[in-house]
């Protein structure tokens, strides 16, 4: 096989990985997009809530053995989906008891709309979740290991008998489920009455109140849904990625980069933003050593907020 | 004013604290407690470093681990590769931290608010992976048994505590110096309102860069010392999220924006978390992080500015209710309208030619030209959206015009930063008064005085003179936060006057005041105009405008509709129509 063909194969492999990982990142970004993009609430603990989602899925699948009977394919997927409702409850109450104290109507007129208080409060929550996670779950890396994790479908050969692309089964299944969940969320937010109420209360707190919407409840629900979506993404990522209680910090950067890149206030934008980050991460492995994968994400993140704080796909400019 | 005494008092507190610390160092039973005391000092210094940037200027940094870690690796690697002693390595780490601060600040200060905080987060995390990739997963400081003192390697833990104390004292002194000089004033002004600070002549970018350089230097140096204590440096131990968070938590828990905050925070939280870690660390491995997390959540919910301020507010509650100085007596009744004495020299002080500004397709201002004679009081009137505030923003440098020229005494103003415009002699007040609530009235005014004063003494004199001009000498030592709205307006006026401006822009200084309060402010303004200062004023209250201005400029839809004597303008049908609508023109 010639050098060019090897290059082509590597490129296609990275591209395929980028697309699959990108779908998963896209899903977790839509979760944060609900919270940061639409409600403009800074939740620094989003990555750690996702970590909880990973553990929830892991316990459902392995710990209690409840879902093991579903087999190695459906089991982990169902477990990831079930992590959603569990984390919805966590997010709902976290908003009710903590986050609502520094968001919404009470701080709408204060400096920075309470953003510093939100940053620091959720930083505290993040520390509690990370280290509480260490106490509860231990520091050993876990992963939802199934035959899917280590097997792949082969696409090709594409050129004669060469150039094959291997699609990791866990990633591909995760990507497909991600797309479906993101589409479901999109339909919910744009089509249903509740979804419209959520968007209205996020968009203009005061006007929504006049329209008879219970804004506090709407915010709690939106926060819960945002948390749940990210948790599902976490459960899916856990099928191929080993995780420990500190895993959140890696992904919180991915999520903010994706949401800002996609443009604040747009759910579809957040998905494409996450997709872009996934592609950048995987394609960067073609030229950068593997340890610097995450550094590449940080650099992209910095470039995005320096040059396009309004996002690549959005046009809602936020001037501070 | 107790500036000198407060410094002496804090020197006394510092001496007492140092004595207690040393006493503790020498009576605690073993190395474990000595180490804990050393850590208290280290994290207090780290908190002070964070406070110097984020506490004073309000730019919240989530990335102080970057400076800390670079400092730690500077000491570790220079000792490992070049045999450089930490006695030199630690100051060198400070230099590295300062340079890193400037390099980070240059691009990142373009961002505001939470974008700044999130961007800061990325630096240490990126560095963490870079140092791992470079192969520095674990750098052990080589032992120099032949001459341990020369390499800061002592078997007696108390010596480390003493070194940590010295570093803490240096950090406290630096921080106190910033707090009590114009440096601190500038940072506070930035924290309150960056635009207003620029308009008051403060070069915000320069001060922010200075602050991050000093902050980075402190963090770098203490990071270097931490490496000596740790002996083995790993990226995770110095660049981690927890390191950045701990810096922030010490300051925020103890009290943000005061030098004592980080000291209080570290003195409470470090022993607490270390003890819990020692007692329960085996069963509950993350207990330290949980303690810090709970501490910060509680602070945000119960005392958002930290323990120091909460306690002070509780103790000082009586002061707040003190009677306001009786301002009313200062004012005489304006009575009938008296013609202003003719003091105009006939020279033009401000000239505006063909000034235009487009925001996208919107023409906010089109081809506006006018001249302002020295000593005049010019009222700019026009309906909402006429472009009045845009005109002010163009004149004092917040917004760059699309076309046109503006000159002050022949000097070009276009393209200057607001602080540069201010330095040339343009003062400004804002529609929304933004007092620095915790500072005294005098200190609020002092912020504006530094523009034209080379030393603190002159600034103080200018500030007092400005307060006298607006009749608020009696209120000099009151906290600005408790002022009623009229006094807030007058204080803001004094702040603008303290910079000794040649021309003053007043943007709706009467907005939101009652009619008797309006009278009082008008009396002050008329007194000012007699002193010969030129004033440009935007105001909605036509009554007030007629009593103040001797020349009107009328704007409508961004264009100059007319200018002339107030009485003539008020009879001009075009003006009446634009201002009051067609119906009124027919009546007139």
Structure description:
The complex is a heterodimer of chains A (320) and B (588). Chain A is mainly alpha-helical. Chain A is built from 11 helices and 2 strands, in the order ααααββααααααα. In chain A, strands 1-2 form a two-stranded antiparallel ribbon. In chain A, helix 1 packs across helix 9 (248-262) and helix 6 (193-203) packs across helix 8. Chain A is globular and about 70 Å long. In chain A, 55% of the residues are buried. Chain B has helices at 3-27, 31-57, 65-82, 86-108, 113-133, 157-180, 182-192, 194-199, 204-230, 235-238, 241-254, 260-280, 287-302, 307-315, 317-320, 388-395, 418-423, 441-449, 456-469, 485-498, 515-530, 542-548, 566-571, 573-580, 582-587; strands at residues 139-140, 232-233, 348-359, 362-373, 377-381, 403-408, 411-412, 426-429, 503-507, 534-538, 551-556, 559-564. In chain B, the strands form 3 sheets. In chain B, strands 8-9-10-5-11-12 form a 6-stranded mixed sheet, with helices on both faces. A 4-stranded antiparallel sheet of chain B has the order 4-3-6-7, covered by helices on one side. The two termini of chain B are 56 Å apart. The A-B interface holds A 42, 98, 101-102, 112, 115-117, 119-121, 123-135, 138-139, 245, 249, 253, 256, 289, 291-292, 294-295, 298-299, 301-302, 305-306, 309, 320 and B 60, 62, 107, 110-115, 117-119, 121-123, 125-126, 129-130, 132-133, 241-242, 245, 248, 252, 284-290, 292-297, 300-301, 304.
């Amino acid at each position: 096989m010639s050098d060019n063909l090897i290059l082509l194969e590597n490129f296609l492999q990275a591209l395929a990985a980028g697309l699959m990982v990108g779908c998963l990142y896209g899903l977790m970004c839509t979760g944060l997009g609900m919270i940061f993009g639409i409600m403009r609430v800074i939740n620094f603990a989003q990555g750690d809530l996702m970590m909880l989602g990973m553990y929830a899925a892991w316990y459902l699948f392995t710990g209690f053995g409840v879902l093991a009977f579903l087999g190695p394919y459906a089991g982990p997927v169902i477990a990831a989906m079930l992590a959603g409702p569990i984390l919805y409850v966590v997010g709902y109450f976290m908003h009710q008891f903590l986050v609502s104290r520094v968001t919404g109507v009470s701080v709408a007129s204060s400096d920075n709309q309470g953003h510093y208080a939100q940053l620091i409060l959720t930083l505290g929550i993040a520390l509690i979740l990370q280290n509480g996670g260490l106490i509860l779950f231990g520091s050993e890396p876990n992963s939802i290991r199934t035959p899917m994790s280590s097997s792949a479908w082969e696409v090709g050969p594409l050129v004669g008998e060469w150039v094959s692309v291997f699609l990791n089964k866990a990633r591909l299944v995760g990507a497909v489920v991600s797309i479906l969940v993101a589409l479901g969320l999109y339909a919910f937010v744009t089509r249903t009455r509740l979804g419209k109420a959520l968007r209205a209360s996020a968009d203009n707190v005061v006007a929504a109140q006049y329209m008879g919407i219970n804004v506090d409840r709407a915010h709690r629900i939106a926060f819960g849904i945002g948390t749940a979506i990210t948790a599902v993404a976490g459960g899916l990522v856990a099928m191929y990625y080993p995780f420990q209680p500190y895993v959140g910090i890696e992904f919180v950067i991915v999520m903010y980069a994706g949401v800002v890149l996609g443009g604040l206030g747009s759910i579809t934008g957040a998905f494409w933003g996450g997709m872009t980050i996934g592609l950048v991460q995987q394609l960067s492995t073609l030229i950068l050593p593997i340890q610097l994968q995450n550094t590449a994400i940080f650099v992209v993140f910095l470039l995005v907020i320096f040059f396009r704080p309004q996002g690549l796909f959005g046009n809602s400019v936020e001037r501070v | 004013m107790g500036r000198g005494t407060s410094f002496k008092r804090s020197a006394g507190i510092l001496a007492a604290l140092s004595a207690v610390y040393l006493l503790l160092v020498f009576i605690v039973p073993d190395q474990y407690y000595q180490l804990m005391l050393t850590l208290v000092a280290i994290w207090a210094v780290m908190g002070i470093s964070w406070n110097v940037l984020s506490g004073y200027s309000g730019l919240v940094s989530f990335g102080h681990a970057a400076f800390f870690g670079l400092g730690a690796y500077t000491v570790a690697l220079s000792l490992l590769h070049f045999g450089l002693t930490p006695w030199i390595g630690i100051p060198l780490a400070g230099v590295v931290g300062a340079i890193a601060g400037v390099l980070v600040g240059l691009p990142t200060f373009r961002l505001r608010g939470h974008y700044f905080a999130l961007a800061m987060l990325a630096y240490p995390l990126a560095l963490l992976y870079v140092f791992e990739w470079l192969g520095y997963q674990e750098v052990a400081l080589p032992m120099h048994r032949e001459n341990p003192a020369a390499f800061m390697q002592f078997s007696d833990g108390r010596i480390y505590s003493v070194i940590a104390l010295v570093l803490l004292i240096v950090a406290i002194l630096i921080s106190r110096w910033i707090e009590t000089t114009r440096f601190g004033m500038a940072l506070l002004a930035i924290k309150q309102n960056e635009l207003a600070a620029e308009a008051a002549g403060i070069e915000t970018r320069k001060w922010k860069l200075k602050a991050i350089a000093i902050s980075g230097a402190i963090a770098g140096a203490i990071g270097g010392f931490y490496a000596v204590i740790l002996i083995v440096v790993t990226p995770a131990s110095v660049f981690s999220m927890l390191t950045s968070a701990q810096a922030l938590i010490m300051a925020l828990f103890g009290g943000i924006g005061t030098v004592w905050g980080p000291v209080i925070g570290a003195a409470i939280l470090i022993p607490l978390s270390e003890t819990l870690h020692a007692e329960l660390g085996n069963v509950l491995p993350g207990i330290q992080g949980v303690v810090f997390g709970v501490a910060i959540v509680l602070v945000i919910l119960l005392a958002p500015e930290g323990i120091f301020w909460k306690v002070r507010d509780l103790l000082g509650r009586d002061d707040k209710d003190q009677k306001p100085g009786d301002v009313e007596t200062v004012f005489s009744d304006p009575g009938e309208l008296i013609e202003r004495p003719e003091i105009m020299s006939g020279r033009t002080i401000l000239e505006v030619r063909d000034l235009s500004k487009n925001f996208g397709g919107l023409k906010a201002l089109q081809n506006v030209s006018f001249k302002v004679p020295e000593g005049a009081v010019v009222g700019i009137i026009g309906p909402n959206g006429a472009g009045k505030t845009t005109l002010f923003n163009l004149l004092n440098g917040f917004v760059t015009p699309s076309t046109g020229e503006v000159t002050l005494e022949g000097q070009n103003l276009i393209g200057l930063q607001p602080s540069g415009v201010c330095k040339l002699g343009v003062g400004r007040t804002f529609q929304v008064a933004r007092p620095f609530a915790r500072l005294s009235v005098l200190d609020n005014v002092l912020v504006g005085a530094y523009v034209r004063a080379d030393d603190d003494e002159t600034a103080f004199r200018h500030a007092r003179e400005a307060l006298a001009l607006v009749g608020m000498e009696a209120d000099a030592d009151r906290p600005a936060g408790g002022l009623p709205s009229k006094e807030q307006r007058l204080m803001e006026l004094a702040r603008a006057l303290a910079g000794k401006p040649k021309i003053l822009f007043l943007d709706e200084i009467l907005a939101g005041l009652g009619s008797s309060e309006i009278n009082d402010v008008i009396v002050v303004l008329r007194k000012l105009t007699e002193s010969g200062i030129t004033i440009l004023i935007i105001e909605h209250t036509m009554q007030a405008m007629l009593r103040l201005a001797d020349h009107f400029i009328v704007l409508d839809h961004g264009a100059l509709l007319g200018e002339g004597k107030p009485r003539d303008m008020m009879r001009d049908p075009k003006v009446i129509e634009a201002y009051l609508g067609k119906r009124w023109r027919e009546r007139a």
